[in-house]
Amino acid sequence: MARARTTFDSFNAVAEPRRRQVLGLLAAGELPVNDIVDTLGWNQPQVSKHLGVLLEVGLVKVRHVGRQRFYSVEAAPLKEIHDWTATFEHFWQHQLDRIKERAEAKQTLARGRGSVPPGGLSAS
Amino acid sequence: MARARTTFDSFNAVAEPRRRQVLGLLAAGELPVNDIVDTLGWNQPQVSKHLGVLLEVGLVKVRHVGRQRFYSVEAAPLKEIHDWTATFEHFWQHQLDRIKERAEAKQTLARGRGSVPPGGLSAS
DNA sequence: TTGACATATTCCAATATAGGTATATTATAA
DNA sequence: TTATAATATACCTATATTGGAATATGTCAA
Predict the structure, then answer these.
(1) What is the rounded average pLDDT of the residues B84-91?
(2) Which of A12, A66, A92, B93 is the most exposed place for a label (fewest CB within 10 A)?
């Protein structure tokens, strides 16, 4: 068996970094294909193909205006991903809590010695 | 060129539905491999392989106890995905607002006629 | 030290992908 | 109706993936 199709899921569609880039661009508002081509500097067929995948999983929608096609973000599938990851939200909440606690404990312990833990925000 | 490797990204790792299932299981707490095998009813090697991918991108961590290996969720990469999708949060917020507005307008318009739009929560 | 348990790794086949280039499609303007 | 602009599609190649089966690794118990 092979990998799940890119068009199987919004998860799979969004796995491709380029497609995330396209969505990032469209976040600012709808754009015709050529604007995306010019902005990202890719070949036109590649842009069209990525848009095709995004369209097929419902991550974007199109508006035809003359010979131009304006693509824009469609929220629902992104919310799905958001909701799924939210299932695990308490994991990083707890983790942040622990980091905070540790920082505070250290500060209490070291008041006067002015220490800041090296490595800053690195989790785990 | 082929697709990005599954181990390239948490996005790619999580694109595989089975791996999301595994993470879902582990959300309840750490588990040894055989428990996952029994619960999901997959072949042991497949479970190990999926865990391997998840481990490589840092979505899980392992604790060795004798000949058992307890896997558990690691939050950071999931938060990355969560944060990325959050970039688009205003899209579905607005969408929900519009739905709400429409519903309220309809209710105001139809007070007394007791209508509930069929299809309920369907977005777009 | 040997056997059994828990897990990982290797080898296999089938498959879908992404980029590149060329070409098709559709719509506008002349 | 024809040339051209805007976009989509087809064809090609290299590649990584998934599941399955068999086997290897590591660890405990007797």
Answers:
(1) 95
(2) A66
